[in-house]
């Protein structure tokens, strides 16, 4: 069973290493290393893989692109909504306790029916008001988060297009087309579809967990003794998961660009490939690059 779990990892790293060796042979083997211009072309053609955590300036860049005002509106409204939900639960608990207390004194008070009716109306009105405020805050929080994500998508895409179009001809001659298409398609799709929705869910989940911990600690102070080891275990697990997921996403992105580049180059030179009878070699190269990318995708998902 242990060897079965290690096989996908070994297969992934072997596929990545084979691709790296092939890329190095294609880039370095056919060009003299002593020429400075060739070294520049080789460094541009070989995609550099990043390691380690994501810099804090990237998070700040996304927040600035989202609009600090919209981000603040979303966070404040989400925090207020969660606080009202907690207060609504406390209000229902107080209402229940008061009803139980009134039922105990109903036999000793002749006018208990009228008092109980007024009390029910009062608690119901307050509960309806709190529920309405929660709905209003939810109607403010969700559109604000979506608006912030829309601002980030539009501004980041505009900056990316502007930076690409302002480059010189030398940039387009040295950088593979697959890398540009990968940045303008897959990476932008992640910004469009995943980051905004994931950020909203993360904020709501963190607020929910904090409220749950605070309420349980307030009701049962001994709960704090269990909270500390649980948080420590959770921190270790999420740190391992984030590191693994981040590296797998980088490998998936690194192995996707050569597929697009190879496919586009094959389409452009299909006449020459057929003339020299190299269909099998190009097909085999495409399949090997797709295999490396598929292994990373399977392990990531």
In a nutshell, what does this entry contain?
With 301 residues, this protein is mostly helical.
Which key phrases capture this entry?
301 residues, 10 helices, mainly alpha, 87% helix
What does this structure look like?
The chain is mostly helical and 301 residues long. 87% of the residues lie in helices and 0% in strands.
Number of helices: 10
**Unreliable runs, pLDDT <50, ≥5 residues?**
1-6, 19-45
Helix/sheet category: mainly alpha
Report strand %: under 5%
User: Percent of residues in helical segments?
Assistant: over 70%
Question: Could you report the average pLDDT, rounded to the nearest whole number?
Answer: 77
DSSP, total strands? 0
- Rg value: 29 Å
The separation of the N and C termini measures: 20 Å
SSE order? HHHHHHHHHH
Task: Walk me through the topology.
Elements: H1 2-28, H2 36-45, H3 56-66, H4 68-105, H5 112-165, H6 169-174, H7 177-219, H8 223-268, H9 270-275, H10 279-300
């Amino acid at each position: 069973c242990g060897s079965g779990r290690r096989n996908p990892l070994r297969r992934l790293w072997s596929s990545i290493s084979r691709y790296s060796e092939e890329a190095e042979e294609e880039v370095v083997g056919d060009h003299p290393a002593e020429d400075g211009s060739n070294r520049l072309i080789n460094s541009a053609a070989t995609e550099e893989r990043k390691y380690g955590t994501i810099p804090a300036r990237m998070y700040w860049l996304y927040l600035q692109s989202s609009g600090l005002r919209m981000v603040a509106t979303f966070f404040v409204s989400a925090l207020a909504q969660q606080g009202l939900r907690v207060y609504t639960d406390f209000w229902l608990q107080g209402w229940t306790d008061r009803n139980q207390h009134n039922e105990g004194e109903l036999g000793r008070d002749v006018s208990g029916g009228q008092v109980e009716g007024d009390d029910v109306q009062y608690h119901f009105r307050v509960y309806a008001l709190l529920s309405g405020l929660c709905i209003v805050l939810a109607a403010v929080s969700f559109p604000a988060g979506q608006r912030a994500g829309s601002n980030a998508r539009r501004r980041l895409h505009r900056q990316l297009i502007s930076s690409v179009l302002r480059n010189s001809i030398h940039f387009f001659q040295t950088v593979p087309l697959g890398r540009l298409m990968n940045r303008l398609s897959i990476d932008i799709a992640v910004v469009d579809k995943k980051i905004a929705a994931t950020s909203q869910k993360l904020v709501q989940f963190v607020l929910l967990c904090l409220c749950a911990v605070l309420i349980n600690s307030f009701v049962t102070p001994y709960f704090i003794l269990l909270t500390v080891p649980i948080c420590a275990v959770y921190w270790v697990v999420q740190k391992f998961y984030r590191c693994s997921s981040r590296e797998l996403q980088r490998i998936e992105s690194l192995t996707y660009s050569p597929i697009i580049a190879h496919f586009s180059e094959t389409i452009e030179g299909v006449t020459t490939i057929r003339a020299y009878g190299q269909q099998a070699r190009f097909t085999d190269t495409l399949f090997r690059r797709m295999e490396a990318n598929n292994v990373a995708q399977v392990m990531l998902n």
